[in-house]
């Protein structure tokens, strides 16, 4: 007779659920909808009348792995969250019940870990294939220095733990509750640099005068840009050893790439200094990731706040997985990162159906879009066009747009999703025309690189060929 596994210990976590709901600014109706249960059942859970079921544990694992880790213990909670995500992959036919997933994670942890590892390997192989296909389309196997650095941050998950924690500690040391410009300037002065201004209209944004011990900033900078550049130089000095160690072991192909990575890591430190991890993540949850409110609270620009949200991937304390990009007037992606299943094209522009392209032409207005990729995953995106004045009539201002989005399952924590009708048909987007398999898109600029086309000279449509 087969040996039966011991019964699962009942878990009562009313206080944890209540604290989680209050931290997210959610009422019981919103929290119940997020967990897929009734309001009355949530009320019973919060009052301690009922234990957590496997379906509720699985929902917590998807949306709030850190809270689940607190309730269940770090190892089992992370395993359940990772297994649930792996088995929810759209490439797998059908969804397993949460109870089945939880039982597998609990009773056969070694099998669960192998499934998670295989899923990660599959996703990594898909990314390598995409890189190979895009490189073939671009016509060269060599990566340029900034592509090298961009890929380094992508492979790091856009989160650098040692640097992030060091910056958070320094921020707490020099500023309470947050380091303002005066605190940053004082900390910089203690490290041998004094702040100075340059009124020359053609001056660079920032330069270091080592001979006189000065950090010279352009006098026309906005307060947000000035504070960020001070934090950049402070981070470059205070964390020089950490940055050098990261650059030294980075698999980069040129000296230019190593110098660019130094700059990128100092920029990362500046973001972590001005928006310390725990404080920023907690504030983001309370305001449901409202960028304007976060910008005002932390004294940063709209773009800086968006970028920082895409870096909140600290183990056991991760924020919502976001994707983020910046697009210029020509459609070039000048910044990109994704902690979601959506991945950006490494070469060329993005899908023309993305709302970010419309946002470039309409500055200072937030656009929201529900979209779906060919793998069936739905997303909600927020895009805003931004203009950085040049300071003179004879020089064009910089115009671009930023995009921030998440998978639809996290829409309840993303304030911009409130205007989305989830029952409406989403916009069908792809990665880029060269890689998109859709055969019914009227916005195609090029046929997919791996598909054949047919041309009927007696038939004329918006696109003069059919993808087969």
Structural class: alpha+beta
What are the low-pLDDT stretches, counting only 5+ consecutive residues below 50? 1-7
Largest sheet: 6 strands, mixed
Shape: globular
How confident is the prediction overall: mean pLDDT? Answer: 84
Radius of gyration: 24 Å
With strands numbered from the N-terminus, the spatial order across the biggest sheet is 5-4-8-7-6-9
State the helical fraction: 40-55%
β-strand percent reads: 5-15%
**Total beta strands:** 11
- Counted by DSSP, the helix tally is 18
End-to-end Cα distance, whole Å, is 56 Å
What string gives the helices and strands in order? HHHHHHHHHHHEEEHHHHHHEEHEEEEEE
Any overview of this molecule?
The protein has 468 residues and is of the alpha+beta class. Helices cover 45% and strands 13% of the residues. The chain is built from 18 helices and eleven strands. It has a six-stranded mixed beta sheet, with helices on both faces. It has a three-stranded mixed beta sheet with strand order 1-3-2. The radius of gyration is 24 Å and the shape is globular. 34% of the residues are buried.
């Amino acid at each position: 007779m087969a040996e039966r596994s011991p019964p699962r210990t009942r878990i009562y976590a009313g206080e944890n659920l209540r604290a989680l709901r209050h931290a997210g600014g959610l009422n019981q109706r919103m929290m119940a909808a997020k967990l897929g249960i009734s309001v009355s059942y949530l009320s019973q859970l919060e009052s301690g009348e009922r234990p957590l079921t496997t379906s509720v544990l699985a929902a917590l694992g998807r949306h709030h792995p850190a809270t689940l880790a607190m309730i269940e213990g770090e190892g089992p909670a992370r395993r359940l969250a990772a297994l649930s995500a792996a088995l929810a992959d759209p490439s797998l036919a059908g969804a397993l019940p949460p109870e089945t997933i939880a039982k597998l994670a609990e009773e056969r942890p070694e099998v669960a870990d192998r499934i998670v590892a295989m899923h990660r390997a599959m996703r990594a192989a898909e990314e390598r294939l995409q890189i190979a296909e895009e490189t073939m389309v671009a016509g060269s196997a060599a990566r340029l220095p900034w592509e090298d650095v961009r890929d380094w941050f992508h492979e790091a998950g856009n989160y650098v733990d040692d640097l992030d924690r060091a910056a958070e500690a320094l921020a707490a040391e020099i500023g309470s509750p947050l380091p303002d410009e005066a605190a940053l300037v004082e900390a910089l002065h203690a490290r041998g640099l004094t702040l100075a201004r340059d009124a020359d209209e053609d001056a660079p944004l920032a330069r270091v005068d080592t001979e006189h011990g000065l950090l010279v900033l352009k006098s026309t900078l906005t307060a947000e840009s000035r504070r960020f550049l001070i934090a950049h130089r402070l981070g470059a000095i205070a964390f020089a050893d950490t940055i050098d160690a990261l650059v030294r072991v980075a698999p980069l192909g040129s000296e230019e790439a190593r110098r660019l990575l130094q700059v990128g890591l100092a920029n990362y430190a500046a973001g972590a200094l001005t928006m310390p991890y725990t404080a920023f993540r907690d504030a983001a949850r309370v305001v449901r990731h409202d960028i304007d409110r976060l910008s005002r609270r932390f004294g940063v620009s709209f773009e800086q706040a968006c970028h920082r949200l895409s870096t909140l991937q600290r183990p056991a304390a991760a924020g919502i997985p976001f994707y983020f990009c910046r697009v210029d007037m020509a459609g070039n992606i000048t910044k990109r990162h994704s902690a979601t299943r959506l991945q950006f094209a490494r070469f060329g522009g993005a899908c023309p159906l993305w709302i970010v392209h419309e946002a470039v032409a309409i500055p200072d207005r937030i656009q929201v879009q529900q979209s779906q990729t060919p793998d069936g995953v739905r997303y909600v995106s927020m895009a805003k066009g931004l203009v950085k004045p040049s300071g003179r009539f004879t020089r064009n201002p910089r115009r671009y747009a930023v995009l921030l989005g998440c998978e639809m399952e996290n829409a309840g924590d993303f304030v911009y999703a409130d205007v989305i009708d989830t029952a409406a048909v989403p916009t069908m987007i792809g990665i880029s025309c060269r890689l998109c398999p859709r055969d019914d898109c009227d916005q195609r600029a090029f046929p997919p690189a791996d598909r054949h086309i047919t041309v009927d000279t007696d038939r004329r449509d918006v696109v003069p060929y059919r993808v087969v």
